[in-house]
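User: Run a structure prediction on this.
Assistant: Running it now.
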Amino acid sequence: MQVEGIRRLSVVAYDVAMSKSNLAGKDESVPRINAVGRNVKAVIQWLLGRDVTESEMADALGVPSNTYIRHREAPDYPNFEQLNVLGEHFGLSPQMLQIAFGHLGPDHLVLLSDQEMAQYELQGGEVPARVAKMRSRFRLRDDTPPLH
């Protein structure tokens, strides 16, 4: 009788483990977020200081709204190119967004301007000490022409 009860518990434990692993498989499709857990739309809204609609995001990416809604749930959203397009459209630094969402490593922070660095920190990014030290060594001269 005890053996039968243990077998039933094992079957139940196996079923629970399998259902959790199936749920975990679904959780892997969560879109990319920044270091503080914000998705790209929330980061853009935060940096702009205003609401951004789904249709604005879709227009920025050059896709219909229903296509945007479907793509925003993809595990690779936002990808490198989408961050580039969104940054350019909303007047934010594409490189900052690419670093914030893990497409570029934190060592790329050295290449950001002071304005881009301020955006990175405002959206929740933390600057590693080694990068801050490197940035303090390299400053643009006041007489340097713009790179545009």
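Residues 26-137 form one domain.
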